[in-house]
Each structure stands twice: as C-alpha cells, then as structure tokens.
C-alpha cells in the first residue's frame, strides 16, 4: 500500500469548497492501493462555517494531523488573513518532523490556499518525496488587472505580486498537476518550461450519494429558508460576487419579462439566492436583492447572505423545484455546485460564459437548459420562459451521475502512479 500525505489547510468540520475533493476521495483511496493521511489546520483557527455532519462522511480510521496557525485577530492588523500564510511555519515544522520519522511515497497539495505549496520544493529536496499540486482555481492570474479597483479582491496589489512569486517557486519543481480545467494546466506548462513534460490530469469535481443520504437522514435538524407555501421555488445556492453581476442582471431581467407577460405564474413562483456572501454571519451585504428591487421584482426574490452548512445546502437543493447556476465573465469558471445540482436530478437553468467548462458538463444532462452570456437578452428571455413553463410538465427526467467520487478518486490515483513511475 503506497502512502500519500495530503496537505489541506481547510478540512472537516470546516465547510470549505476546496476540501470536498479530498473528503469525498477518502473512502476510496485504498481501493486503488493508496493509503491517505491529512495534515490540516485546526478548525479553531478558521472563521468559515463549520458543519459537524461532515465527520460522518469519512472513514473512522483516517489519520488526521492538525497544525496550529497564527491568530487572525493579530495577523489581520498587518494584512495577513490567509490561513495558508498564518499556518506556513507550523506546516513547515510539523510536516518536516513527520517526513523525518515516517515514509510517504507522495505529497499531495489539494487546496486553494496555494501559498502552502511553496513548501513542496523544500520537502522534495530534503526528503526525496515528490509532490503533486491540485489546481481547483487559478493561482497567479491577470484576471483582475483590467477590473476597476472596486471589483478587485482586498489587498490585490500585494496578493498579485506574492502569488506570482510563490507560484514560480512551487511550480518549477512540481512532479505532477491535477486541475479541474485543462486550461489551467496548459497555461502553467506554457509559463514554466521545466514542467512541460510532467504527468498532468484534468479531473472534474464530483458529488457523492453518501452526502445526499446524510442530508436526508438529518433533514429535520436544518434551518429552512424556504417560505412555507405552495409556490414554485427556484434556488441558487452559493456565493455571488461582483464578477457575477452581469449574469444576475440578465437572469432577473428575463424573470421580470416572464412575470409581466404571464398571469399564470405571477403568484406562484419565488426565486431564492442562499449563502451569497463569504462574509461572517451577520456581516454579509446583499448582492442580488438590490438588483431585483431596482428591476421592480423584489417581492419575488429572497436573498440570504449567510453561508449555509454543506448539508443544509444539499437539503435546500433537494427541496427546491428547480435550480439556477450563474457564472462570471471568466471563461474558466466552473462552479463545484453544479455536480451536487446534477446529483439531485433537478431541472437547471444555466447562464455561463460561452467557454466555461461547466457548459460541457451540463450538456451531458437532459435536465439542463443552457445559455451563455453572449446570447442576446431576447434569447435569454425566450429560453427562460420555456424553462419556467416546463416546470409544470409531468415528464420524468432520470439522469445517472457520471461525476461520482469513486471515479474522481480513481483518476487521482492514476496520476499518482504515473508520478511514481518516472
């Protein structure tokens, strides 16, 4: 049995999108001759939403190592809120001791907290252990360079330069790459000639039937944000940033046109946008409701900025009548939520960048109505009208999920084996 040491600063019970690939894979690594251990940051150092039910989704025998981090209360005074930067020294000392005392065949960075990956070259050189990086999002990117300052992330000047430096250090020595998007891999191999021939694999996110069973069993414990009425409930569950403003406006405008021309649905439909802000509970600023109010359809739109726990999000997906997925103007945007949407076997209305890989995923399912941001507003209005009208159809749609956790794990392990064979 080969051993992989997984570096994931966020892990259960913290509900972080970038930890779910590993969490779902832990059940299956041994089927492919790999034994996994996790090194994560103690959850007390994170202010993200916690979900204790996540513990039920992993095997009891998985060994989880916990490291400390500097308190955000103090480091934020100097502009250093990232958990990767706050935990970097503790990762360095703990994992170095671990590699000195135990044998591991591979180190696997699966996280969007990328600065921690800078430790890979050191551990590789000192302990002769190869490492793989999983790129679930871009690391260093020029995406925001042409955006107004108001739409850039906080401390963008500093983070842009730091990411550029650290990415170069970590990527020049990496032994393998995994990404949810082939475009990320192509860009990095073009940027760093040293890695043009290393093993790489495009592995999409996935969903897990086990997660859906956990959500169903515990449904009575969840706080429901749906109004108790007989109205059709269409939901979008996840963060909404300024990068999604264009798609939100076009979607809500299509809804306005539909409501104004359809007496049948005027009193029978509600739109929900849940968990729209990454801000701590109580501090989130609505990003959808103001647009709805401006369009004169605020009475139909319910927005909850507070983040939902992972299983409460699934609970709301299952109890919706249909789902929205909207994207940004970034052609690489996928959205991991799409895989849970599909597992729920609900009808979906999507509005994404025409080059988004998510469109290719959705094309595999009959239940998805696909639109892109290049479409005219009239086209979007028309397809939206047909989508809503189709919700009253008695036709049954049954799609078998092809993006399941078992296949995702198999592909990861195949990449690991390639790295070791070189």
Can you characterise this structure?
Strand 8 (about 230-235), helix 8 (about 245-260) and strand 9 form a beta-alpha-beta unit. The chain folds into two domains: about 1-205 and about 405-420, Glycogen Phosphorylase B (Rossmann fold, 3-Layer(aba) Sandwich), CATH 3.40.50.2000; about 210-390, Rossmann fold, CATH 3.40.50.2000. The strands form two sheets. Strands 3-2-1-4-5-6-7 form a seven-stranded parallel beta sheet, with helices on both faces. The protein has helices at about 20-25, 70-75, 85-100, 120-125, 155-170, 180-190, 210-215, 245-260, 290-295, 310-320, 335-345, 355-360, 375-390, 405-420; strands at about 1-5, 35-40, 65, 105-110, 130-135, 175-180, 200, 230-235, 270-275, 300-305, 320-325, 350, 370. The mean pLDDT is about 90. The chain has about 425 residues and is of the alpha/beta class.
Topology:
Layout: E1 2-7, H1 20-25, E2 34-41, E3 63-67, H2 72-75, H3 83-101, E4 106-110, H4 120-127, E5 131-135, H5 156-171, E6 176-179, H6 182-191, E7 200-202, H7 209-217, E8 232-237, H8 245-261, E9 269-274, H9 289-295, E10 301-304, H10 310-318, E11 322-326, H11 337-343, E12 348-352, H12 357-362, E13 368-372, H13 377-390, H14 405-421
Parallel strand pairs: 1-2, 1-4, 2-3, 4-5, 5-6, 6-7, 8-9, 8-11, 9-10, 11-12, 12-13
Helix pairs in contact: 7-10, 8-13
Q: So what's the CATH class of the largest domain?
A: Alpha Beta
Low-confidence stretches: none
Q: What gross morphology would you assign?
A: globular
The largest sheet has its strands arranged as 3-2-1-4-5-6-7
Number-wise, the strands total 13
Mean pLDDT: 91
Largest beta-sheet characterization = 7 strands, parallel
Q: Kindly state the percentage of residues in helix.
A: 25-40%
- As a whole number of angstroms, the C-alpha radius of gyration is 22 Å
N-to-C CA distance: 18 Å
CATH superfamily of the largest domain, by name, is: Glycogen Phosphorylase B
Q: Give the helix/strand class.
A: alpha/beta
How many helices does DSSP assign? 14
- Proportion in β-strands: 15-25%
Identify the CATH architecture of the largest domain. 3-Layer(aba) Sandwich
Tell me the count of domains.
Answer: 2
Provide the CATH topology of the largest domain: Rossmann fold
């Amino acid at each position: 049995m080969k051993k992989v040491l997984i570096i994931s600063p966020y892990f259960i019970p913290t509900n972080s999108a970038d930890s779910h690939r590993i969490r779902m894979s832990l059940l299956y690594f041994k089927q492919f001759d790999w034994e996994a251990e996790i090194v994560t940051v103690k959850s007390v150092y994170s202010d993200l939403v916690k979900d204790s039910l996540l513990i039920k989704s992993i095997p009891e025998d998985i060994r989880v190592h916990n490291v400390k981090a500097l308190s955000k209360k103090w480091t934020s005074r100097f502009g250093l809120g990232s958990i990767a930067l706050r935990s970097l020294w503790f990762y360095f000392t703990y994992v170095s001791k671990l590699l000195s005392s135990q044998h591991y065949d591979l180190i696997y960075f699966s996280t969007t907290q990328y600065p921690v990956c800078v430790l890979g070259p050191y551990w590789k050189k000192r302990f002769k252990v190869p490492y793989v990086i999983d790129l679930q999002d871009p690391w260093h990117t020029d995406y925001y360079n042409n955006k107004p300052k108001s739409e850039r992330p906080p401390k963008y000047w500093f983070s842009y330069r730091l990411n550029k430096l650290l990415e170069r250090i970590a990527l020049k020595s990496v032994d393998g790459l995994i990404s949810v998007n082939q475009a990320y891999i192509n860009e990095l191999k073009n940027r760093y000639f040293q890695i043009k021939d290393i093993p790489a694999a495009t592995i999409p996110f996935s969903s897990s039937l086990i997660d859906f069973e956990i959500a169903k069993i515990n449904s009575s414990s969840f706080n429901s944000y749906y109004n108790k009425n007989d109205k059709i409930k269409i939901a979008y569950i996840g963060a909404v940033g300024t990068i999604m403003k264009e798609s939100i406006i076009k979607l809500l405008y299509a809804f306005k046109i539909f409501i104004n021309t359809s007496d049948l649905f005027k009193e029978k439909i509600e739109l929900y946008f849940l968990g729209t802000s990454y801000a701590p509970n109580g501090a989130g600023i609505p990003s959808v409701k103001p647009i709805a109010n401006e369009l004169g359809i605020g009475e139909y739109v319910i927005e909850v900025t507070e983040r939902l726990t992972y299983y409460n999000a699934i609970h709301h997906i299952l109890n919706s009548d249909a789902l929205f997925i909207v994207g940004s103007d970034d052609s690489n945007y996928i959205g991991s939520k799409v895989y849970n949407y599909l597992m729920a076997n609900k009808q979906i209305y999507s509005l994404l960048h025409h080059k988004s890989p998510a469109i290719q995923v959705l094309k595999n399912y009959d239940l998805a109505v696909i639109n892109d941001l290049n479409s005219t507003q009239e086209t979007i209005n028309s397809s939206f009208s047909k989508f809503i009208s189709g919700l009253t159809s008695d036709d049954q749609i049954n799609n078998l999920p092809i993006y399941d956790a078992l296949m995702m794990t198999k592909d990861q392990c195949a990449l690991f084996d390639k790295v070791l064979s070189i």
